[in-house]
UniProtKB/TrEMBL annotation:
InterPro entries cross-referenced by the UniProt entry: Bact_solute-bd_prot1 (IPR050490), SBP (IPR006059)
Protein name per Swiss-Prot or TrEMBL: Extracellular solute-binding protein
Presence of keyword Transport: yes
Keyword Transport: yes
Pfam families per UniProt: SBP_bac_1
Record keywords: Transport
Species assigned in the record: Cellulomonas hominis
Family the entry assigns: Belongs to the bacterial solute-binding protein 1 family.
Length: 424
């Protein structure tokens, strides 16, 4: 099929036009065959207030332009969302669309399990590959064909409270890892909690460990360890990274961090009780909504020394047994259009997945994110996207064992490699 020229009027297609024009692109549902009113069910993550407002605006704009299609949204917390999709795999309980992460360990797991439909025909139909940024598109093409349509391309960095840095006498942002440790010590000496995390959700503290692996091992060795055949037990840098993790846990993270959630940790940052955290570009509006004055909010790249930025992609995936696949594709097309991206604004990310959409002038830290992304010399990805679910679980177990003192950092790499050798 030839790519369509994007026009607002295109979104007002009737069910009859969908039936005639998109049947060949259907993944197996019956919306095109039956016509009439259609419902597209979307499973997504629990949304903060600003995110829910933006999502509702996107849905309302789409439904106004497509009066025959209704979007039904179901929200779940992160772990419940993962569990629901795994449990529904292979059944008729799956939705039409689901929001999920990219990477072989998360999105790839569901692709392998047959929970995601190849969208090549829809990409050809709508010309999405020509509209998406290269980084966002790479998340959809990494499994062969096209799986999912990018929802956000997230970049992560260190958020910091400018007022607390000033209170501690920190006048320059860290540009090396040694600078970062020195700043943490300076904050601690001033009676300020340097960095906050919630340890009950393992992926939160994992952001620190991932960044320490990148810092201590360098880009090439880190990639061999996370996505190649590297030996975690043979690299001294792995011991160095786990040693640093242990030090951060003992000296610089919020007391009791292992017993609180990421949401509780966020409240510490919002309320000025902690100076730093590692979060993504969606976090700025949330921090402002949470009560942190925008003028006190700043970001800088975790100073790994490799020049790479940290981040991940999220996509909306179509299920093979979707009941309304063609209507779902119409919604995906609206979502990535300039009109749809305007509805989403900066509630989920500061930088659009559509390459023609400029950041909003009033986006919190929008210019700072552009500078970080523009200066990046590549990307290192959250390891729960690099690893399989089982491997991620072991990675987290070892991470937590080091933080609780149950495992010597010198033994952490060898123990992880032993598990990999036995299970891969």
């Amino acid at each position: 099929m030839e790519a369509h020229v994007r026009k607002t009027t295109r979104f007002a297609a009737t069910a009859g036009v969908l039936a005639l024009g998109l049947t060949a692109c259907s993944s197996g549902g019956d919306d095109a065959a039956e016509g009439g009113d259609q419902t597209v069910t979307v499973w997504t993550l629990t949304q903060e207030e600003a995110q829910k407002t933006a999502w509702d605006a996107l849905v309302a704009g789409f439904e106004e332009a497509n009066p025959g299609i209704t979007i039904k949204t179901e929200e779940r917390a992160t772990d419940a969302h993962k569990d629901a999709l795994r449990q529904a795999a292979g059944t008729d309980s799956l939705p039409d669309l689901y929001r999920y992460w990219g990477g072989p360990g998360l999105g790839g797991e569901l692709v392998t399990a047959g929970v995601s439909a190849d969208l090549t025909s829809f990409y050809d139909e709508y010309g999405w590959a020509d509209e998406l940024t290269p980084a966002a598109l790479a998340n959809a093409t990494q499994y062969d064909g096209y799986h999912g349509v990018p929802f956000i391309q997230a970049t992560e960095a260190v958020f910091y409270n400018k007022a607390l840095f000033e209170q501690a006498g920190i006048t320059e942002l860290p540009t090396s890892y040694d600078d970062l440790v020195a700043a943490a010590q300076q904050l601690k000496d001033a009676g300020i909690t340097p960095m906050t995390f919630g340890g009950t959700v393992n992926w939160h503290v994992m952001r620190l460990l991932d960044s320490l692996i990148e810092t201590e091992c360098g880009a090439d060795t880190a990639d061999e360890l996370t996505t190649g055949d590297g030996d975690w037990g043979a690299e001294a840098c792995v011991t160095d990274a786990f040693t640093e993790l242990e030090s951060w846990g003992a000296d610089y993270l919020n007391p009791g961090f292992m017993g609180i959630s990421n949401d509780d940790a966020a409240q510490l940052f919002y309320s000025g009780q902690a100076a730093m955290t590692i979060e993504g570009d969606w976090y700025g509006p949330m921090a402002v909504d949470g009560g942190l004055p925008q003028e006190d909010l700043g970001i800088f790249t975790f100073p790994t020394g490799t020049g790479r930025t940290y981040g991940f992609g999220e996509l909306l995936y179509l299920t093979p047994a979707a009941k309304s696949p063609d209507a779902a594709a119409t919604f995906l097309d609206y979502m990535v259009s300039p009109e749809g991206q305007e509805k989403l604004g900066t509630a989920f990310a500061s930088i659009s997945v559509n390459s023609s959409v400029e950041p909003a002038a009033d986006a919190p830290l929008g210019a700072d994110w552009q500078a970080i992304i523009g200066a990046g010399e590549g990307l290192y990805v959250n390891n729960d996207q690099n690893f399989s679910t089982a491997e991620t679980t072991e990675y987290w177990r070892i991470q937590n064992s080091v933080l609780t003192g149950e495992l010597d950092p010198a033994d952490a790499g060898a123990e992880f490699q032993k598990w990999r050798d036995a299970n891969n």
